[in-house]
Amino acid sequence: TLLTIIALHFSISSQLPEVNYPTKVDILFIVSYFFNFLLIIWVVFGYNMHIAEKKNLIDKINKFVKPALPLIYFIFAFVLLKWV
After folding, report:
1. pLDDT digits (tens, 9 = 90+) for 23-81
2. DSSP 8-state code for residue 16
3. DSSP H helices in 1-84
4. How many angstroms separate the CA atoms of 18 and 51, rounded?
5. How far is the C-alpha of 23 from the C-alpha of 72, rounded, in Å?
6. Predicted structure pTM score
7. Neighbours of 32 (CB within 10 A)
């Protein structure tokens, strides 16, 4: 996903005019990079918990994280884009 976001960012930014302030597209990409970073942290944490054989804890947390994280992303992006 990180490579996809980077490729999309380069393809879109090359078509936009140069301005001195962040546009809504820039803000959306910053939010996307931030949430991708959170997902990478979650994968590393889940892997370490898997190695420690705490699969039940991972399953319990995943019940809440899987549906909540995309919703939080869209709500956060929507609020941030409306605010700016």
Report:
1. 888 888 999 999 999 889 988 988 898 888 888 888 888 888 888 888 999 998 888 88
2. S
3. 2-13, 24-51, 55-83
4. 47
5. 21
6. 0.78
7. 19
